[in-house]
Amino acid sequence: MTAARSTTARSAGRRLGRVPATAALLALLAGTLAACGYGSKSDDSASAQPAASGKKLSADSVTIGYFANVTHATALVGLQQGIFQKDLGGTQVKTQVFNAGPTEIEALNAGAVDIAWVGPSPAINGYTKSHGQDLKIISGATSGGASLVVNPKKIGSVDDLKGKTIATPQLGNTQDVALLNYLAGKGYKENAQSGKGDVKVDRIDNKTVVSAFKQGQVDGAWVPEPTASQLVAEGGKRLINENSLWPGAKFVTTNVVVSQSFLKAHPDVVRAVLKGSVETNAWIKANPSGAKQAINEQLLKLGGKKLPDTVLDSAFANIETTDDPLASTLGSEADHAVKAGLLQKPDLSGIYDLAPLDAVLKSEGRPAVSDAGL
């Protein structure tokens, strides 16, 4: 794994104080990348991205973190189509692929990643643990795309969950919080940290959840797309589409976050990435068939494999790419983490910096988005 390099002193003091921690993290992340499902390898080689050309911005390179999930369609498509590199000109795009948000936030905090597509719960946790010092949410990316899929032979309704084992991708990730919050709302008693309780919550990565489901090791899983649709293809039943739990069927699944130190040192690079994000989302909406093809091509390029058409069609239909961070739903997701026992009541004031996004939207003749007072 290669940390981003910049032409300023943004990382000098920060990295010198974190050398041991960063070295340990890089070793951990190497194992994490090897354990990922689709797209398990690093994507920072020169052959993986278009060559940087044109005028260099204030950084030599920018490292983008994301998941090989359909819920990160903006990152997948924008990288595959070369949109980010086009907008960055002579500043080279480098990437790192993660399995779940908490590890990605650790990488962002350690300086191994500069900008990341990540779920709301890890972003909230990372912001509060650093007392508002490490990251900012700078854009939305995806709404929807998460479901509880179960073995219909064992679970016919929510009442059948007691005594069953349900998987989530990682302790404290967005789907983990969603499951724990849902169980609490139904009166089930859970130990959020251990996963023990009326329902056993088993944290396993998306690479192995499908095989665990097929082998009967878990009875269901609350997971993002495309894993949810993969489970359905293996005979699972979509017991809860999380869209149904939210007003207007909209809730933030993926945000774009940035290291505050990188934002301060390289605002031009951040704006270029956001320009690429906005352009990519517009392209996805205008070209859904092409977007699905680009997603599959990027998954294959990452060293994994393409999704079957039926799985990809299902997964893509369950998400909506968006520039709007849907900030009002972020507060609700924070409340869910508190209710689940994973977080004390957080102070989220200042978690958003939407000025760079609003500048891009204004240049496109579009209105600003709301931070819902956060």
TrEMBL record:
Family: Belongs to the bacterial solute-binding protein SsuA/TauA family.
SUPFAM superfamilies found in the cross-reference section: Periplasmic binding protein-like II
Record keywords, A-Z: Cell inner membrane, Cell membrane, Membrane, Signal, Transport
Record field: transmembrane: none
Organism: Streptantibioticus parmotrematis
Protein name stated in the entry: Aliphatic sulfonate ABC transporter substrate-binding protein
Domain of life: Bacteria
Location in or out of the cell: Cell inner membrane; Periplasm
